[in-house]
Amino acid sequence: MGLTIGVDIGGTKIAAGVVDERGTILETSTVPTPPTADGVIDAIGDAVRDASAEYEVDAVGIGAPGYVDDKRATVLFTPNLTWRHEALKDKVEQRIDLPVVIENDANAAAWGEYKFGVGTGHEDVVCITIGTGLGGGVIIGGRLHRGRFGVAAEFGHIRMVPDGLLCGCGNQGCWEQYASGSALVRYARQRATATPENAAILLGLGDGTPEGVEGKHISEAARRGCPVAVDSFRELARWAGAGLADLASLFDPGAFIVGGGVSDEGDLVLDPIRKSYRRWLVGSRWRPHAEVLAAQLGGKAGMVGVADLARQG
Amino acid sequence: MGLTIGVDIGGTKIAAGVVDERGTILETSTVPTPPTADGVIDAIGDAVRDASAEYEVDAVGIGAPGYVDDKRATVLFTPNLTWRHEALKDKVEQRIDLPVVIENDANAAAWGEYKFGVGTGHEDVVCITIGTGLGGGVIIGGRLHRGRFGVAAEFGHIRMVPDGLLCGCGNQGCWEQYASGSALVRYARQRATATPENAAILLGLGDGTPEGVEGKHISEAARRGCPVAVDSFRELARWAGAGLADLASLFDPGAFIVGGGVSDEGDLVLDPIRKSYRRWLVGSRWRPHAEVLAAQLGGKAGMVGVADLARQG
Amino acid sequence: MGLTIGVDIGGTKIAAGVVDERGTILETSTVPTPPTADGVIDAIGDAVRDASAEYEVDAVGIGAPGYVDDKRATVLFTPNLTWRHEALKDKVEQRIDLPVVIENDANAAAWGEYKFGVGTGHEDVVCITIGTGLGGGVIIGGRLHRGRFGVAAEFGHIRMVPDGLLCGCGNQGCWEQYASGSALVRYARQRATATPENAAILLGLGDGTPEGVEGKHISEAARRGCPVAVDSFRELARWAGAGLADLASLFDPGAFIVGGGVSDEGDLVLDPIRKSYRRWLVGSRWRPHAEVLAAQLGGKAGMVGVADLARQG
Amino acid sequence: MGLTIGVDIGGTKIAAGVVDERGTILETSTVPTPPTADGVIDAIGDAVRDASAEYEVDAVGIGAPGYVDDKRATVLFTPNLTWRHEALKDKVEQRIDLPVVIENDANAAAWGEYKFGVGTGHEDVVCITIGTGLGGGVIIGGRLHRGRFGVAAEFGHIRMVPDGLLCGCGNQGCWEQYASGSALVRYARQRATATPENAAILLGLGDGTPEGVEGKHISEAARRGCPVAVDSFRELARWAGAGLADLASLFDPGAFIVGGGVSDEGDLVLDPIRKSYRRWLVGSRWRPHAEVLAAQLGGKAGMVGVADLARQG
C-alpha cells in the first residue's frame, strides 16, 4: 500500500495530510473545526478531498479525541466533549470513497513517535501526550495496545488524588487535572495571585493580571527565569513524573516518550519530569530504568501515526 | 512436554507440586520456610526432590515474591523482604538437575487462573491477588505481559494516595497499603478502637482487644453481621474497586480476576468491589464493562500457573 | 437597651427583623436581594426602615457573608462573591440614622444559637453552619471569638484535601467543598450517574436526570430510603465529622452545634456526623467528649444573633 | 508571689529550674528521664528538691507531654507514650510540699514565648513547637486557651492528609507526621535513597547510608547547600506553612510563633514556612497578615512558661 491520509482533529482546526510509508507528509490541507459533530464530519470530508486532489491515496486514518471502540469505527465517549457513540467511520466513509480507520488521537501520536520518531528501535514504549489534557498510548511487542474494548491507555483519567479536582469525565482527581497544559496555567495563576512579587516577568507578558496568564506566557517567563513560571513547570513535572513511575509499575516499558505541546519546552520540563520519575520509581536502585525521552515529531505525530495505522488496515 | 513442578514460596511454608498439562496437581510436598534466602533455596531443592520422587518431571517453575528480571532468573528486589539481586534460577539449578524458570508469584497466579481457572475463554485478563499484600498479573492476547525488564504488573505499588501510608517498598500511599489483608486488619482494629460498641462480635472472636483482631476474625464476624467487620471489608473494597477502575483505563481487559485469600470470602467482598469499580469507571455509561470475577483455584493458582509457565519453557 | 434590628443577607432575599432582648422577633420585613453591593446596601436601608416603622429601635446588626474586619465595619473579602473591602457599616449608616454593627453571618448564627438556642448553658461552643457553603463561629468563655483581625472561625476554608477540589476562595481542598449543601448535591449527582439503579427514588423526584437533582430531592429521597440519597448524606457526614474532630483538637469546646439547612434533616444527618466525629477524635477513649447538638433556631439564628450583638454595641 | 519552679520532662532528661517573675532562671537541676511514669514522678521530686535547696519557692509547674485535664492535674493521654489518666499533680504533691500545676508542654512553651519571648506585646498568639513531634499553644486576649476540657491546641493531630501516614495517636494523616523533626528525617532519608547523587554532603556527615541520616546532619548539610537537605527542609516548610494558613482561618491571631528544635535553624526554615503560609492563606490580598516569628527562648520556653503559669496559680 502506498499513500494514506492522516487526519488530526484539533480544537481550532482539522488537518489532513497525505503521508507516505516513511512517515513523510507530502501535502497538508486544513479547515477550521466546526462546533458540532456533524460539522466536524463534513469538514473532515472536505479536508480529505482537498489533500488527496493530486495524490492517489488508499485509506484514511482519523485521530479522534475520546474513547474509540474495538472496531475502530465509533467514538464511544469524549470526556471533555459531548460526543457519545458517534459512528465516525461510517459517516466519513459516506462522504469519501475510501476505507477509514478511527483511532484515539493519543494512540495515534504514540504510534507516530514509535514508528517514525524517537521511539524507533524500541519494542515496548509508553507515550504520554501533554497538551491541553493528558493522553496516552502503549506499544507492546511492536503492536499498539488497544485493549479488549479499544479503550486502553486512557491515562488522563487514572485517579491521582482521591477526592481531588473535578474532571470533565465526571470523576475527581484525574491525572489530567494535575499534569496538563490546563493544569500548568492553573498553577501559574494560583502562584501569581498568592505571590505576585515572584511573578513580575510572567505578569508582564500578559495583561498584568493572574487571570490573563496563558500557556505561552509561562513558557517564555520560565525561559527568562521567572520564579513562579519555573515553579509551575516543576509542579506539573512533579505530577507527570509520579505518574510515569506508576506506569513503570504497570507496563514496564523500555522507554517513555513525553509528547504534546509541553514537550516542546525540552529539558526545561523533561529534566524535572525525569527527576520526579526517579524519585517515585519503586525499587529504583535495584531495577533497570526505562529512559524518559522527548517526542521528536511535535504536532505531526498524530497525523503520521494514524496515516500509518490506516495503511496497515 | 509432560509433567512439571510448580513451587510456591509462602511466608510459612514452601510447597512443590507435580502438575500435568491440564493443571491437575498429582503430588504435593511442603517444607517450612527458612528465614534466609540461602535456606529457602535449599528448601526448594528438598521440596522438589521430594515431590518428584515418583514422577518424571521436565522442568521446575518457581513463583517468587518480588521483582523478577527479564531472563526469569534473578529476583531483583522484594519490597517486603531483603532479597536484592538474588540469582534464584542458578542456585536452584545447582541443587536439582532440571531447568528452572522463576516467575513473580502474582504473575504465576494470574497465569494459573487464566489457563485453568475462571479466566478460561478470555484473551485479555487483569488479575489482582489480595493476600497479605497486593499483587497483579496481566495477560494480553493470551500471553503473560512481563514488560521490557520483567517487572510489569507490580500493582501493589502504584500510588493511590499522595503523601499516604508508608510502604515496605520505601514509597508512600501504595495501593497495597489500602487494599490487602494487612489493610483489612488495620481497618478493623482502627474501627474497633474508635467504636467498640459496633465491634462486639469481632472483639468476642479474639482476645477482646482491638490489637488481638486477626484476619480470620474479621471474615467470621462479617458473616455474622458485625458492623465493624462489614465496614472494614467495604473500606477494602472501596480501594480495590477504585484501583480496578484505574486498571481499566490503563489495560482495558476483557475480565478482571480477583484472587488471594480475600477472594475466598466470595460475594461478601466481591460485590462491594464491583460496586466501587462501577462507581469510578470513567465513562461508565458509554463503554463495555469488563466483568469482575472471583478466582477459582484458591491457593493453588500460583503452583499450577508457574508449573505451566515452566512447561512452556 | 431595648429593641434592635437584625439583618440577614441571603442569596435571594434580605430580611430585617425587630428583635427584643430575649431573642424574640417582633416584626420582619423582606426585600429581594439585588445583584450589586450598592443595591444590597439600598435594600438593607429599605428593609430596616420598613421593619422599624412601628418600633423604636436602638441599633442595627447586619450578618454579612465573608470576612468582616476587626472594627466590624468593612467586609474585606467574600470567597464566593466579588465584594472586596466594602465599607458596609458607613454606607448603611448614611442611609439610616442608627448605629450599625457588621458581623460575619456564620458568627451571627453561632451567637444566636449560643445565646437563645441549643447552646444555652454552655460557655465554650463551636458552631458550624452547613448551608450552600460551610461557615463557622466560636464562643470562648461566653464571648464571640472574632480574632485579632476579625476573621477567625472561617472554617469553610481550612484545607481538608491537599490538591483537592477548587474552591471559590482560590484555594483547593477546602472543607466547604466536602461538607456543604453544594457538596451534597454533587455527591448525589455523581452517584446517580454511576449507579442509576440505586437512585430510582431520587431521580423520580426531579426531572429524571442526575443534573436535575436538587437538595430538596435528596432530603426527600433519603427519608424514603433511596440508597444513593442516604449514601450522599453519609458522605457529607463523613467529612463534617472528621472536621469536627479537628476542631476538637484545636478549640476543645464543651459542645458543637450543627446548624444551617442541612441540620433541618435532624438525626438523618446528625447521627452519621456524630459517628464520624467519634471515629476521628484523637484519644477518643481517654478524654471527655463534647456533645454534637443540632441547632434549634433554624434560619432565624443569624437574625437574632446579630441583633443581640448590635444590642451589646 | 516570688520564685517558682518550672519542670520540663524531656525524652532523655528532666530539668527543674527556679524562675523569677521576669522569667529569669536562677538555678537548674537535671536528672535522667526514667522509663516508667512512676519513675518520672520520683525523678521530678528529686529535681525539684535539688533545684529549690537554696531558694524559697512558692509553687511548681510541670510541662508534660500529652493531654492534660481541665483541673491541670491529670495527664489523660499521651499520643506517643503509654500514659493514660496519670494523676501527676497528686503524685508529685505527695513527694514535695508545694502546690503543683500541670500543663501541656507545648502550651507551656507558648506561654513562655508569649510572656517573656518574641510574643511580648501581642495579645493573640498561636505558637507551634516543631520538635520530634508537633505541639501547639494558643493565647487569646492575653490568656492561655486551654479549652473546656483542658485539651485545646493539640495541633499535631489535626488531619492534613486523608488516609495519610499512621500516627502514634492511632489516626492517619496527622500534621505531626508531615511537619516535625521526625518527618524531616524521613524526607531526607527518602530523598537520599532515591537520588543519592544529590545527597553527597548529607550522606558524608553520617555513616554514608540513608538510614544513618539524623536531624543534626540535615541541618548541617542544608547550611552547606546540600540539595537533598535543603529540599527536605522545604518539604517540612511546605506542610508547616499550609497548616499555619489553616490556623489563621481558625484562630486569626496577631502573630504566629514557630518554636522547637527546628526553629533553631532560623530563616533557613522560617522563610520557606512564611512563603508557604502566604501561598495558602485564604484571601491573602484582602486581609491583614499575622507575622510568622521565630521563637526566642529556645529550649527554655517551656520551663519559664510553666513556672509562670504556676506563679499565677
From TrEMBL, chains A, B, C, D:
GO terms for molecular function: ATP binding; glucokinase activity. It holds the Pfam family ROK. This is Glucokinase. One of its GO terms (biological process) is glycolytic process. Its EC number is 2.7.1.2. CDD domains: ASKHA_NBD_ROK_SgGLK-like (cd24061). It comes from the Bacteria. InterPro entries: ATPase_NBD, ROK, ROK_cs, ROK_glcA. It comes from Streptomyces abyssalis.
